[in-house]
TrEMBL record:
Recorded superkingdom: Bacteria
Protein name from the UniProt record: Aminoglycoside phosphotransferase family protein
One Pfam family hit: APH_6_hur
InterPro entries, alphabetized: Kinase-like_dom_sf (IPR011009), NH2Glyco/OHUrea_AB-resist_kin (IPR006748)
Example of a GO biological process term: secondary metabolic process
Protein's organism: Streptomyces caniferus
Keywords from the UniProt entry: Kinase, Transferase
Region Disordered: start-end pairs: 1-20
GO molecular function: kinase activity; phosphotransferase activity, alcohol group as acceptor
Amino acid sequence: MATAPIEPPQRLVSSLSGDPESPVREWLDALPTLVQQRLEAWDLTLERVQAPGGRSSLVCLVRQKDQTPAALKFPVPGGVFAHEGTALEVWDGWGAVRLLRSDAASGALLLERLQGGVSLRSLPEAKALLEAAGTVRRLWVPAAPEHAFETLAGRTEEAAETLRTAGALTPSAGPLVDRALELRRALPDGSDERFLLHGAFRQGKVLAGERAPWLAVGPSPVVGERAYDLATLVLDRFEDLAAGAGAAAAARRRVAKLADSLEVDRDRLRDWTLYRAVDIGVREVAAGDRQRGELLLEFAAWL
């Protein structure tokens, strides 16, 4: 077992609050201790911290007592990642990484080891979309009547004010922001579907495995209609789509193709894609990536 303290990757440190009094910053400062406690409690041997890693979790590559490889993950506490472990328990390895152990106090998740450097983005676009569609279909299971997850109505309501504020930084996007907010009010109430969704599904969230060729990771689970999950898949590699001839028509064809292949209503998928493109686009502009943000807004306008 490791005795030297771990050091969180710079990407994670940079993405979190600089306020030393914030709960997230306190969690970040406590991470070395939390990791060491889990290594000892679960009899794990640390191989290395995964770097550059993500912006919302720390992942350590470890070995269990029997030398089986695994991944020890600490998601940022609270927010959309609060029920990641619960969702993985529901899926029990069907289409998603398998949860081996969890600790409610620290939020730690012990996961089967996947090939972190090999995602669906390594495949040609057509093949990647096909594999992604097959993977996300497996995750869509009916939610239990008394589920613990956030609903689409709740999640999008919380995001509405941020969308409105961020949209003010891009006055030219005003009509698109208004349309997205209109859709946000109408869409959650327009469907009777109550499926457990990944919530952040895209090609980069599907990694190569040994137990199955491709498995989803990093859910921010939410309950609602399938079109919401599929919308971010429509947006995958949108830069490549935008660079080609007839980009607007190609975007609409992608919506139709994915909707039909997964038996999702075309119009609802189009509307959820427009909403998510605007939501992500204005946030990107607000965060300083104007080029990417404006291209996402252009994608929304094509729909």
